[in-house]
Amino acid sequence: MSAVLSPLAALGRTVLAILAYVGRIALFAIEAVSHLLRPPFYWREFGNALIQIGWLSLPVVGMTALFTGGALALQIYDGGARFQAEFAVPSIVAIGMVRELGPVLGGLMVAARVASSIAAEIGTMKVTEQIDALVTLSTHPMKYLTVPRMVAATLAVPVLVGVGDSIGIFGGYLVGVNRLDFNAAAYLKNTVDFLELWDVVSGLIKGAVFGFIVAICGCFFGMNSGRGAQGVGRATKAAVVAASVMILAANYMLTEVFFAA
């Protein structure tokens, strides 16, 4: 009997540990939002975070979107050819990019780059007792370290998603016109005709949520990192994994809310 129950007990412990982590992250996020409503606000930290999260993430998000749009056009053309529906390539590329692929891939790329960076930076500050020094100087670590990064990521990632959507659609256009022999004017017309405003807005809302998740996960695991280099390394890895999984889960829930019939 124990041989049967032991795997179930191990599974139960894993599920409970995951739920406990989710609860701790949720409480951390609530505390961060509550500090946002109370002064002071550290504008210099916000500006630095905006550059690090937004501007410096643009190349990797842009390249990812460009190649994704091109590959999506090829796949849709090949699949549509089985049903004589090749003409749908422009509209499906545009809708697929702005609704799903642009926000999700942009969020995952930012999670890989930014969540790890934030966790490593704050974790190193904890190991070297710089966070304790902030408390000694009457500076709340949550307000100084978390709130500026949270606001910067929430504002910057939707902009990255919008730019990535445009680049991804352009990648599909390049492949459609140069590789699949679409007429350039007809391709652009189909893209514009079938793309609705809510498609774009829903993707930008997803980007804001994903940016919030990335910043919260990076700050949470950084502030709760263990001592030494191994502790910082584990915190960095956990931040990226948690942010990526939460982005995918949030994407499903938001899609259910936005587009469920």
Task: Write up what this structure looks like.
- This protein has 261 residues and is an all-alpha fold.
- It has one domain (2-259).
- It is 86% helix and 0% strand.
- The longest helix has 39 residues, at 89-127.
- The mean pLDDT is 89.
Write the layout of secondary structure elements.
Blueprint: H1 2-36, H2 43-53, H3 58-81, H4 89-127, H5 130-136, H6 141-178, H7 184-194, H8 197-223, H9 228-259
Task: Please supply descriptive tags for the structure shown above.
261 residues; mainly alpha; 9 helices
| Count of extended strands | 0
Dominant shape: globular
- Rounded to the nearest angstrom, the distance between the terminal CA atoms is 46 Å
Order of helices and strands: HHHHHHHHH
Biggest sheet layout: none
* Beta-strand proportion: under 5%
Structural class: mainly alpha
Mean pLDDT: 89
Weakly predicted, low-confidence segments: none
Task: Assign a percent range to the helix content.
Answer: over 70%
Q: How many helix segments?
A: 9
Oligomer: single chain
Radius of gyration over alpha carbons?
Answer: 21 Å
What's the number of structural domains? Answer: 1
